[in-house]
Design a protein that fits this description.
Distance between the termini: 70 Å
Number of helices: 12
Helix content: over 70%
Mean pLDDT: 87
Order of helices and strands: HHHHHHHHHHHH
């Protein structure tokens, strides 16, 4: 069997780290053989992920109770939306875990075509290195964001404690500030803080990891489309026999079926991730009118979070759209086939390339191509212009008094 850089081996370390945060609870994720991957309800990973999901659902119930008492407004609804999105991401990763073995088995079978001669000579995409770079960049940036938001919470809770002369410990006022939905249901105990912070991590982690996971899928698929394009580009303007184009077309159709399989599996995550990113960016843009800067820590946390969301979303689009980009390059290469070499097979290949979209999608509502960047930018700019016209900036200022 051909040996080479398979997607399963390239992404296994990333998925193993995600299991620490209770995502994708499949066993033997680091095994070298795809056949060893399996989902077991009674495995430690599934049990651990189930406990985390149940605890997060309980906290979500407390959030619903708190929102019911204080009322729904623009700000409480954002907290509610955050929990809903992150819980759905946990559930969708559970759903993906059920089928992960069959998905990886199908992917592995397709990859065997591209780990043999002549594709082996065009395997310079460095899939594993790209996946590790993306994961390291995104998740380290997400960790910095989390630290800044924690520092922001410590700072604001300290201001409230000082200004209001509240006679409680520093950690207790921080607990009340961070989790008002739990404060009156679950009295403060110092031993609770590490566990609650870990639960906070498991809620916050999927928001950035989902984008990272979609980028990994995009890199894995783009690597094989890149090889297919390089093989066609290597015979540029040459007269090739019909059997060459028959083989290339069959390999393209195998990739096409793989894209459809992956699209069906990750489309809910794609729709949820982009919907959440768009709503978060718009929410932060609304908040930008009241963050007209007096407090360095608040401003730093706010602007870093907004810029990181925009850059992360843009990077996700560019990486995932590389599948479609390589398909367009293949179409361009076919246009240079000499007239005397234009056979029925080339014609069929050309028609199959031109008649269907090869790209990941959000349940068919949108396709991840580079044009999506312009569509999202247009929406955000329109929203910004609308709220800047409606909101009187002179009446909105950052909160500085907490009593």
């Amino acid at each position: 069997m051909p040996q080479g850089e398979t997607f399963h081996r390239a992404v296994s370390q990333v998925l193993f780290i995600s299991q620490i945060y209770a995502l994708l609870p499949v066993s033997n994720i680091r095994s070298q053989q795809v056949q060893n991957i399996q989902f077991k309800w009674l495995s430690p990973r599934a049990f651990y992920s189930a406990i985390i999901l149940i605890l997060n659902l309980c906290e979500f119930g407390a959030v619903l109770n708190h929102v019911g008492k204080v009322g729904v407004n623009f700000h409480t609804s954002s907290s509610l939306a955050l929990y809903i999105v992150c819980l759905l991401e946990h559930i969708f990763f559970w759903r993906l875990a059920f089928n992960w073995r069959s998905i990886m088995s199908h992917w592995h079978r397709v990859e065997q075509l591209f780990l043999s001669v002549p594709y082996r000579f065009y395997d310079e995409y460095k899939m594993k290195r790209r996946i590790n770079i993306v994961f390291g960049l995104i998740m380290s940036s997400a960790l910095l964001e989390h630290c800044l938001l924690l520092a922001n919470s410590f700072h604001l809770s300290s201001l409230e404690r000082t200004q209001c002369n509240i006679n409680v410990s520093y950690l207790e006022i921080t607990y009340k500030w961070e989790r008002p939905h739990l404060y009156y249901l679950l009295p403060y105990h110092i031993w609770l803080m590490p566990m609650l912070e870990w639960l906070n991590q498991t809620i916050a982690y999927p928001r950035s990891f989902t984008d990272c996971f979609l980028m990994c899928i995009g890199i894995g698929l783009a690597a094989r489309f890149h090889q297919l394009h390089r093989r066609i580009a290597a015979v540029h303007r040459k007269v090739m026999p019909a059997i060459f184009w028959t083989e290339v077309r069959h390999h393209y159709l195998a990739l096409k079926r793989l894209v459809r399989l992956l699209d069906g599996a990750v489309a809910p995550l794609m729709l949820l991730a982009f919907g959440n990113n768009m709503s978060f960016i718009c929410f932060q843009l609304f908040n930008s009118f009241k963050n007209i800067g007096v407090d360095l820590i608040v401003m730093l946390a706010f602007w870093y979070s907004l810029i990181f969301a925009i850059l992360r979303t843009t990077l996700t689009i560019f990486v995932a759209s590389s599948i479609h980009d390589f398909e367009r390059k293949i179409i361009t290469a076919l246009r240079d086939v000499p007239a005397k070499a234009w056979t029925t097979e080339v014609q069929r290949f050309s028609e199959q390339l031109g008649n269907d979209m090869t790209a990941l999608s959000g349940n068919g509502f949108f396709y991840v191509t580079r044009q999506l960047v312009l569509s999202m930018a247009t929406t955000i700019i329109t929203y910004e212009l609308m709220i800047s016209d409606v909101i009187n900036q002179a009446t909105i200022r950052q909160r500085t008094v907490y009593c």
